[in-house]
Structure formats: structure tokens, C-alpha cells
């Protein structure tokens, strides 16, 4: 029996939940390969760096050696290109020096011819001939200098292309090395191994789950509720978790934005003092608080309540000799009380236990 009273109800959304580790790390296969050896079993406690299993790395190591050989070949090609560029530029620089000496000789010869022509010992035709040869030499020298500058730019650009190609290969090798290091599967942190693929010889695809490492010293609650209540579940809301006779308090820490099959998933952080009393996988009832109603008629919550609506409940008669079925309207609830909208007055006694065996009876005598 529960007596209807007037009081405050901090309304909540009722949902089912499961105790899950506060931290889980899923370890996946970095390459497509097969399992060669397994060193641990599910349930083992492991420390940082503990070997978990060994994957077949022969194909990955062969690919690594191939990349290293290609890298060496590209370095040899770069050295060869540098040597050819230095030789070509050196030859062109030497040709420019020779041309400079030739132009200097023509300039001296032109000065002499002009001097002789001023004395009357030379001819104008000879002066013009030497001037033309000097001008041609100067233009050829300028062309060679521009050619040298262009060849230097081309050599520098070609070297940068080769260096970029080598850097790309170096990055690929580093990535492959990290992949090989990851393929030697070790525990990234301390915890309990809650799952490991122990099928030796089984092929695993790249990205496939091969182990799960969990922290079983701290827990959280994974809850699900109909997406029609999505606007009433928010981060920071207070929550009460009930499992058997135990009751815990916590805070909603994360609400997934997407609905799956009409359900919203959320997580509740449990106060640390309760962690020692919980076990992973334990089923719970979760009540997320969202509103406060003052001065309402309320009765005790129980298995009869399935959400707001009309109910047929047994109410104790005034003389206390029997209980009579009555249609009542119930509203919101929390884990303790249910709001009575109509049909029950304060002070009346209501049966809140399971009365499904008497659903066809309208009145029952009390012995």
C-alpha cells in the first residue's frame, strides 16, 4: 500500500542502462594479415607495453625493404644529377671566361684601330669591322651569361623535385615503420583485457578489431531512451541509477546526437565512491532528472507504472474492508514517486504492487 500525499516531485526520464568501463580502447589491426601468436587471454590485467599478440609481418617487412631500396636508388639518382649539373655548369662557366678574354681582346683591338685611324694610319672600314666583331662578342657573352643563370635555375629546380620525391619516400617509410611497430601488438596503457582475438592463423583485415583494453576500476552507465525524450536529456543533468537494492548518483556527461532505431544513447558518469560496488555489464535502471513539480498529489512508484496515462488501480475503501478498482490519471514520475493528475485524493491508500492476477476483478475483500 502507498498513501497518496502532497509534495514535490523531481520528475525524471526512466530508461534502461548498462554498466560499462569508463575507459575502453579498441585495438585494431594496422594491416591485412593473420594472427601468428597470442600471449594473453581475456580477463588478464596488463601493463603498458605488455605484448598481446603477434601478427604475420613478412609481406609488410618485404614492402618496407622495397621502399628502402627505392629510397637509396633515388638518392643515387640525385647524386648523379648533382654531378652532371656541376659538370655542365663548370663547362659553361669556363666558356664564359674564354669569351670574356676574347671580348677584352677585341675591345683592345678596337681602341688601337680607332687610335690609328685618328693618326691617319688606319681605315674606317677596319674600325667598323672590329666594332662589329666586338659587339657580336659582347652579345654572345651576354647570351652565355643568361644561359648560365638559366641552367643554374633549372638545376636547382630539378634538385628540389628530386628532394621532394625523396621526402615523400621518406615519409612513406616512416609511416610503414610505424605500421610495423603497431603490428607488434602491445598494450598502449595499463588495464584489463576484456576481449582478444585468440584464433591463431585467422586472417584479419586492416582496421579489424583484435583486442579491447578497459579500465575496470572506474565505470559509467550507458543508457538508452526513446528519441521522443531527446529534449529532456541534456549534459550536466543529475541522474539516479538503481540496480537491485543499490542506488547511485551520477551526472549525464554525453548525449549522442544521432538517433538509432528510435533510441538516443547517453552516458552517465558515476561518482567515484560507488565504483567498487559495480561490475561491467550489470543491468540498471536510470532516472535522469529534468524538472521539479511542487504541491502535487503523489504515490509511490512501482512496477505498475509504464508512463503517463490512465490506469486501473486498486484503492482502499473508506472502511478499510476492501480494495476497489478505480480509473486514475497518472503523469510524470521519478524513481520514488508518480504524479497523480486525477482519480485519487490525498490520504487515500493505493495498491502499488503487481496485481495482474486480479485484472478481471473490480473489488477484493481484505481478510
Characteristics of this structure?
367 residues; 3-stranded antiparallel beta sheet; elongated; 33% helix; alpha+beta
Put the structure in a nutshell.
With 367 residues, the chain is an alpha+beta fold. 33% of the residues lie in helices and 37% in strands. The strands form three sheets. The protein has a six-stranded antiparallel beta barrel. It has a three-stranded antiparallel sheet with strand order 5-3-7, with no helix packed on it. The protein has a two-stranded antiparallel sheet with strand order 1-16.
Topology (elements, then pairings):
Elements: E1 2-3, E2 5-28, E3 33-38, E4 45-46, E5 53-55, H1 58-119, H2 124-183, E6 191-196, E7 203-204, E8 209-226, E9 238-243, E10 246-255, E11 263-270, E12 283-300, E13 309-316, E14 322-333, E15 337-342, E16 349-350, E17 363-365
Antiparallel strand pairs: 1-16, 2-8, 2-12, 3-5, 3-7, 4-6, 6-8, 8-11, 9-10, 9-12, 10-11, 12-15, 13-14, 14-15, 14-17
Helix pairs in contact: 1-2
Give an overview of the whole structure.
The structure is a single chain. This protein is 33% helix and 37% strand. The chain contains two helices and 17 strands. It has helices at residues 58-119, 124-183, and strands at 2-3, 5-28, 33-38, 45-46, 53-55, 191-196, 203-204, 209-226, 238-243, 246-255, 263-270, 283-300, 309-316, 322-333, 337-342, 349-350, 363-365. The strands form three sheets. A six-stranded antiparallel barrel has the order 2-8-11-10-9-12. Helix 1 (58-119) packs antiparallel against helix 2 (124-183). The radius of gyration is 44 Å and the shape is elongated. It starts with a strand and ends with a strand. The model has no long low-confidence stretch (mean pLDDT 84).
Amino acid at each position: 500500500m502507498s498513501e497518496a500525499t502532497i509534495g514535490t516531485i523531481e520528475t525524471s526520464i526512466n530508461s534502461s542502462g548498462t554498466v560499462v568501463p569508463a575507459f575502453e580502447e579498441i585495438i585494431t589491426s594496422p594491416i591485412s594479415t593473420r594472427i601468428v601468436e597470442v600471449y594473453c587471454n581475456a580477463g588478464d590485467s596488463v601493463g603498458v607495453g605488455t605484448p598481446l599478440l603477434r601478427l604475420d609481418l613478412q609481406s609488410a617487412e618485404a614492402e618496407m625493404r622495397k621502399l628502402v631500396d627505392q629510397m637509396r636508388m633515388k638518392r643515387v639518382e640525385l647524386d648523379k644529377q648533382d654531378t652532371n649539373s656541376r659538370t655542365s655548369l663548370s663547362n659553361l662557366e669556363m666558356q664564359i671566361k674564354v669569351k670574356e678574354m676574347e671580348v677584352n681582346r677585341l675591345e683592345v683591338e678596337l681602341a688601337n684601330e680607332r687610335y690609328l685611324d685618328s693618326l691617319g694610319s688606319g681605315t674606317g672600314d677596319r674600325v667598323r669591322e672590329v666594332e662589329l666583331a666586338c659587339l657580336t662578342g659582347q652579345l654572345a657573352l651576354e647570351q652565355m651569361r643568361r644561359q648560365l643563370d638559366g641552367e643554374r635555375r633549372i638545376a636547382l629546380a630539378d634538385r628540389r623535385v628530386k628532394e621532394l620525391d625523396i621526402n615523400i619516400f621518406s615519409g612513406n617509410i616512416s609511416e610503414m615503420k610505424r605500421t610495423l611497430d603497431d603490428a607488434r601488438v602491445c598494450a598502449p596503457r595499463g588495464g584489463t583485457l576484456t576481449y582478444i582475438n585468440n584464433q591463431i592463423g585467422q586472417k584479419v583485415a586492416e582496421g579489424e578489431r583484435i583486442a579491447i583494453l578497459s579500465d575496470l576500476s572506474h565505470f559509467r552507465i550507458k543508457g538508452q531512451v526513446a528519441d521522443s525524450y531527446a529534449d529532456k536529456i541534456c549534459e550536466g543533468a543529475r541522474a539516479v541509477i538503481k540496480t537491485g537494492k543499490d542506488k547511485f548518483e551520477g551526472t549525464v556527461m554525453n548525449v549522442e546526437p544521432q538517433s538509432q532505431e528510435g533510441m538516443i544513447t547517453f552516458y552517465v558518469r558515476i561518482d567515484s565512491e560507488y565504483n567498487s560496488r559495480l561490475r561491467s555489464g550489470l543491468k540498471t535502471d536510470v532516472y535522469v532528472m529534468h524538472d521539479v513539480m511542487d504541491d502535487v498529489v503523489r504515490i509511490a512508484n512501482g512496477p505498475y507504472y509504464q508512463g503517463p496515462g490512465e490506469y486501473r488501480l486498486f484503492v482502499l475503501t473508506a472502511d478499510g474492508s476492501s480494495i476497489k478498482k478505480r480509473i486514475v490519471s497518472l503523469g510524470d514520475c521519478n524513481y520514488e514517486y508518480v504524479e497523480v493528475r486525477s482519480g485519487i485524493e490525498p490520504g487515500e491508500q493505493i495498491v502499488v504492487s503487481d496485481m495482474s492476477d486480479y485484472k478481471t476483478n473490480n473489488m477484493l475483500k481484505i481478510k
